Amino acid sequence: MKKAAKAGGCAQSFEVESDSLTKVAVIGASGYVGEELVRLLLRHPRAELVAVTSRQFAGKTLAEIFPRFSQLQKTSRLRFSQPEPAQLAHRAKIIFLALPHGRAAEFAKPLLQGGARVIDLSADFRIEDAKIYKEFYGHDHPVPELLGKAVYGLPEIYRKKIADAKLVACPGCYPTSILLLLLPLIREQVVNLASILVTSLSGVTGAGRKVDADYLFAECNESMRPYGIPKHRHLSEIEEQLSIFAGEKVTIQFTPHLVPLNRGIITTIYVDLTERIDADSIDSIYKKAYRDEPFVRLLGDTLFPDTKNVAGTNFIDIALRLDPRTSRLILMSAIDNLVKGASGQAIQCFNVMRGYPETTGLL
Amino acid sequence: MKKAAKAGGCAQSFEVESDSLTKVAVIGASGYVGEELVRLLLRHPRAELVAVTSRQFAGKTLAEIFPRFSQLQKTSRLRFSQPEPAQLAHRAKIIFLALPHGRAAEFAKPLLQGGARVIDLSADFRIEDAKIYKEFYGHDHPVPELLGKAVYGLPEIYRKKIADAKLVACPGCYPTSILLLLLPLIREQVVNLASILVTSLSGVTGAGRKVDADYLFAECNESMRPYGIPKHRHLSEIEEQLSIFAGEKVTIQFTPHLVPLNRGIITTIYVDLTERIDADSIDSIYKKAYRDEPFVRLLGDTLFPDTKNVAGTNFIDIALRLDPRTSRLILMSAIDNLVKGASGQAIQCFNVMRGYPETTGLL
Amino acid sequence: MKKAAKAGGCAQSFEVESDSLTKVAVIGASGYVGEELVRLLLRHPRAELVAVTSRQFAGKTLAEIFPRFSQLQKTSRLRFSQPEPAQLAHRAKIIFLALPHGRAAEFAKPLLQGGARVIDLSADFRIEDAKIYKEFYGHDHPVPELLGKAVYGLPEIYRKKIADAKLVACPGCYPTSILLLLLPLIREQVVNLASILVTSLSGVTGAGRKVDADYLFAECNESMRPYGIPKHRHLSEIEEQLSIFAGEKVTIQFTPHLVPLNRGIITTIYVDLTERIDADSIDSIYKKAYRDEPFVRLLGDTLFPDTKNVAGTNFIDIALRLDPRTSRLILMSAIDNLVKGASGQAIQCFNVMRGYPETTGLL
Amino acid sequence: MKKAAKAGGCAQSFEVESDSLTKVAVIGASGYVGEELVRLLLRHPRAELVAVTSRQFAGKTLAEIFPRFSQLQKTSRLRFSQPEPAQLAHRAKIIFLALPHGRAAEFAKPLLQGGARVIDLSADFRIEDAKIYKEFYGHDHPVPELLGKAVYGLPEIYRKKIADAKLVACPGCYPTSILLLLLPLIREQVVNLASILVTSLSGVTGAGRKVDADYLFAECNESMRPYGIPKHRHLSEIEEQLSIFAGEKVTIQFTPHLVPLNRGIITTIYVDLTERIDADSIDSIYKKAYRDEPFVRLLGDTLFPDTKNVAGTNFIDIALRLDPRTSRLILMSAIDNLVKGASGQAIQCFNVMRGYPETTGLL
User: Fold this and answer.
1) Are D181 and D237 spatial neighbours (Cβ–Cβ below 8 Å)?
2) What is the pLDDT of residue B312?
3) What pLDDT score was predicted for residue A148?
4) Of A79, B247, D102, D176, which is the most exposed, with the fewest CB atoms less than 10 Å away?
5) Would strands B328-335 and B316-322 be described as parallel, antiparallel, or unpaired?
6) Are A50 and A116 in contact (CB under 8 A)?
7) Which residues of A touch B324 (CB under 8 A)?
8) Could you give the maximum distance between any two Cα atoms of chain B, in Å?
9) d(Cα A78, Cα C73) in Å, to the nearest integer?
10) D215 in contact with B at a CB cutoff of 8 Å?
């Protein structure tokens, strides 16, 4: 790999020796998150996608199921399969799980035992505390012994741990859009923790490729609606992460809304500050926190986040406003729920785990 | 009029004596609000639309400008005109102003002097206090002597005053969706006034038929964005109304968002209650407040407001949830910004002013 | 009934004697067509909706299933039921079938035997010829003896027959948008029959409330696609009707496309004329054909049909252009697939059957 | 450059010597086509974008005008400028013109004289015949001496000429979607030329970033409409190209429709074949024509083109159906109007002109 890096391996050059590529597999590639992951991996100059699995589509080629991938370089040989985990762990160095919540846990153990490193995009390993898992997901965790071993895959926060992790749990889309807004302030202890209120708006792919009347075109188009109040499952990971950084139990208010577009999340957060602090000082906190982050864009004083500026990208756009009328701070972010909120972030973790430049395959 | 009511005047019957109809006019009918107002008046069984004015379209027929109206009963004779206010006041008993903010004020005075009653859909007369007007609109009010005389056109709150009003100022779309959620609680004094936080989502017609790059299809489709932070103009009327009912100055947090659909507003409000109060008691407050209101629908414990259920109607759908985790109360509403948020509410005021059943022409 | 008509019964007056209303029922009211039918019947001043049936929703109120109907006049008492056909035929004078193709046929026979008149919105009775039915629908017709007794429910063409019909088969949405464009020319024998080419674009409700991955929001939004080529089922009724008026077997080209909006069909047809005929003569043919039609709007030389002008209405907007470069005639129409293309047309038929003014409840 | 090609220059490697990159400039980068061109050039591993010009935005950075580009590699130094053509020709080897029709012609001459090669995305040089230009564009061509020198930039057809061209005129979006469907058949002389009928559907970016009431969100959303009948300007280039390959003057029927999505064109064409020819033979014609084409995807017998499968890509998806009922052949294609229909195709031409692999920067 070292040698290959020197030679400048890249998407368009074919002379790269195959050992310079990392063999990867995607388990459960039939949903929107899995499809986006495959799209990004196919373009990734350092990844070689050796297997794509799906119970539903086993035997079909990628292009049959996702016509948008046909004739893309490398896709012709790819066919959905259904190999044993142990066998997969043998073939691929890093394995992505894009399975529904609950099913990922079953796969992780044999894959890890087989020697593979795992990047899980489900909610199964995002929570450290098995009690919280049970409270929010309604049943005991199937492999609690792995809970403490997973690293929460938010590279801006846990980069170092991710680099060495065997098991990475990629954050949910809402949590990504919320935590990157809140954590810099929490770390500086300038927020009244009880005051945190979060409103989020999500495009419809956020619900996954769920064949349910609620997500039919004519039920969503020209429709907007709050939902999941007051205890959306994502609260469990959001509050656990906030609590870790606050050093005390944090409980927040969170209201998601469904909005008629394909991709994107807008999050707007209101907080009371613990002390008089001016807008410049707040700006400094964010500038310091995200100065070297390739995917965090601070929009400054005049712009607002807009999902169309992040759609299809791994960026999170962030804006802040201190309201002189109420002294509250308003934090706003925009992400693409399928990229920075899921598959792009997984690739970013992959880059960190493999020591590649973090933007590889993502710009 | 009494006689007509007995005779059962209705949209489809032509034998109704013309004196049983109220002659009305619409000034400035070229925007979305004006167009919707014309649509509703054309269907209204007790209104006779005698004039529709527009500088831009003077001389053209309604059907040329709004092809959707062609061949509707009564529209064939209607042509956009540009009459003098005094002359209009002579021809129509009630005159609707659907003009941009700032221009309505000029028209109101001569119309009132001419003896007409005026229903203004702009922001010009929504605020009682000339200082607040100047603070939010940036210039002195052109006819401050009329400010105190206008009645705020929210029938659920000011029905009696509207009945006798000469000048009605219809609320803005955001204020309608917000005030009908908050006022019952404010009147009962169970809300911590400093805690009120409002997030609203609006469809694109909320911006009017403004020919601006920001509202082009490809700039709005697949886009969501917060805007107007922290001091949207609608705050002036919202806070003035809240203050009147609270008996003290109220300052709230308000964040509007632009969302890709034509019609609809979703408002989500968070409040702290002043005392321990259970969900049933809150429900009772709303049931009492809105028991006999024909256009307020309380959704109960399982449903959430959805703009598709109110689109094209004058309903406001309301849901409440008490969050046991944070003890905050979450209030949610859905309206059609062009109907209950503007033209439908204007018709509702018209019905009140004329003593017609309040739902006339609106169901 | 006669008496009631004199008295001027209308939506807003409650003193109308109940015998002046026609009792109606809707069987299978859970799809988009059924829902729209219920919406229109609830507003109809001469219809009393006595029953709404649904296997799926039996026992629930209308408002539980369609929250948009709650608090509408008259809906509170309505609950989905599942009565026997014979019993229904006893309670309602006219019964609408809004069932999937294939299931309507089973219901029609007992209803007719019970003395009710039936307006069927499915495809089951649209075709006279049992062989054509079999060819396009793949199985024998379940009640072939009724085939010849149904009247094709296109009032602009079959008004007189509809007035006395026991069984009316409402046309499909595509056929309505196509036949009203073609029939005037076919009757005048000025079209080269072999030259007829039809392209149609349909909104997504055209597919019904089918819970299928193809109709999920994210599969339709930002998507357009032709489908159903070359032998869409609607061809059977289109060609049968054209053949009847042409006096010979007509075969046309027809390509439907799915387009991301809720409601609306645009049809564009190309024909060669049999003789040199000027634009004025063609205009005259359409003016003569549709002069007194309340729901046909001829747009003239400058406008084009646009679905937004017909959405929610029973209008069909029609435009013609003679192309001097190719001598072909281009015919274009716009309808709302759920109104003029289904439920509105059914109401129009109902009005004809009951001798009410044809626009009753539809403007 | 030769040397660099060997070394394998790519987007992510920074050690590439700058002489291995081709210096390019974009004139008029403020519309949707210009923006997309900039997006693609920023990702292109062999292009160095040295200047981006705009009268409107001169002095601003790219990121200020297009926030979606901020923090992308290389954009920080880029600022909109307004240099003299001669000066630009000195700085950049290949210059893209993304100007409105009519303005591109003025720029081309001095740029060519200055030694640059020009890729024009406007309509100014697409037509060889000055008379046709005048007929369709309404005025004499400003630099008729250049007309015959431009190469029509459809690489699948004119690859060799493009390789050496000084001036390339990129086809319009409709023409691309139409010509790639028709030319294989025309070359084989199996089509009845008088029979060609084309229906196209376009997303709203096809109209450009035109600030006009017709393209406001609420005028396009939930709207579909035919337009530009019978003589859309794109007919001039379509018919000229068809005529060249047919060896005789070809006149076709063409109807464009505006449809509510951002990106995409669906084209459906009907043709009569000159002789009995079976489906397999037609397939063979297309397979032969496009066997080695990296951006043409033949969908086979079961799939239909769908804009969502080509959005954001340079692919054209093609499907064919022979209708046994009418013996007509139906040809269908899907492209992204901003990529294969404009900027992607311009990049493809650029790759051909520079001898790069044709997919460079486009997969």
Assistant:
1) no
2) 96
3) 85
4) B247
5) antiparallel
6) no
7) 230
8) 62
9) 59
10) yes
The pLDDT value recorded for residue D15 is: 34
> Rounded distance, CA A346 to CA A338, Å?
10
* Neighboring chain A residues of B221 at a CB cutoff of 8 Å: 261
pLDDT band at B8 (very low <50, low <70, confident <90, very high): very low
Question: Is there a contact between B222 and D262 if contact means CB atoms under 8 Å apart?
Answer: yes
User: How buried is residue A17: exposed, middle or buried, by Cβ count under 10 Å (0-12/13-18/19+)?
Assistant: exposed
Cα angle A100-A105-A106, degrees, rounded to a multiple of 5: 100
Chain pair A-C, CB pairs under 8 angstroms: 60
CA angle A303, A309, A314 (to 5 degrees): 120
Q: Answer whether B330 sits within 8 Å of A230, measured CB to CB.
A: yes
Q: Cβ of C216 and A219 within 8 Å?
A: no
Rounded to 5 degrees, what are φ and ψ at A103? -85, -20
Q: Which residues contact C218 (CB under 8 A, 6 or more apart)?
A: A32, A203, A204, A205, A209, A215, A262
Contact B221 D216 (CB under 8 A): no
Q: pLDDT of D351-363, one tens digit each?
A: 999 999 999 999 8
CA distances (Å), origin D201, targets A78, B27, C255, D205, D334: 33, 38, 13, 12, 10
- C-beta separation of B318 from B297 below 8 A: yes
Nearest to C222 among D230, D251, D262 (CB): D262
Yes or no, beta carbons of C262 and A32 under 8 Å apart: no
User: Quick one: average pLDDT of B246-259?
Assistant: 97
Report how far residue D104's alpha carbon sits from residue D100's, in angstroms, rounded to the nearest whole number.
7
Structure tokens at C85: 């056909």
pLDDT at B75: 62
A221–C204 C-beta distance less than 8 A: yes
Query: Please, are residues B316 and B176 in contact by the beta-carbon 8 Å criterion?
Result: yes
Distances (CA, A) of D254 to A77, C306, C330, D194, D226: 40, 18, 10, 12, 11
According to DSSP, the residues that pair with A96 across neighbouring strands are: A26, A119
If residue B110 lies in a helix (H) or strand (E), which one and from where to where? helix B103-113
Token output for D56: 């409107």
Averaged pLDDT score across all residues of chain C: 91
Contact residues, chain A, for C216 at CB < 8 Å: 204, 209-211, 215-217
Residue among B299, C10, C11, B199 nearest A328 (CA) = B199
Specify the DSSP element, H or E, that contains D39. Answer: helix D32-43
How many other CB atoms are found less than 10 A from the CB of residue C164?
10
Residue A337 structure tokens = 């729920």
Cα(A143)–Cα(D11) distance, integer angstroms: 42
| Interface check B313 vs A, CB under 8 A | no
Q: Which residues contact C80 (CB under 8 A, 6 or more apart)?
A: C29, C52, C53, C54, C57, C58, C59, C60, C61, C62, C65
Rounded CA separation B248/D197 (Å): 71
- Rounded (5°) CA angle A313-A210-A146: 75
A208 part of contact set with chain C, CB < 8 Å = no
CA distance C251 to chain B (A): 34
Tokens (6 digits) for C193: 């029959």
Radius of gyration of chain B (CA): 20
Any long-range contacts for B284-289 (C-beta under 8 Å, 24+ apart)?
A: B285/B184, B285/B185, B285/B188, B285/B190, B286/B184, B286/B318, B286/B320, B288/B184, B289/B156, B289/B183, B289/B184, B289/B187
- Distance separating alpha carbons of residues A22 and A4, to the nearest angstrom: 11
CA distance A47 to A23: 6
Tens-place pLDDT, residues A4-34: 333 333 333 333 334 589 999 999 988 999 9
The confidence score (pLDDT) of residue D74 equals 58
Gap from D141 CA to chain C (nearest CA, Å): 23
Tokens read off for C49: 């909706």
- Interface confidence (ipTM) of the complex: 0.92
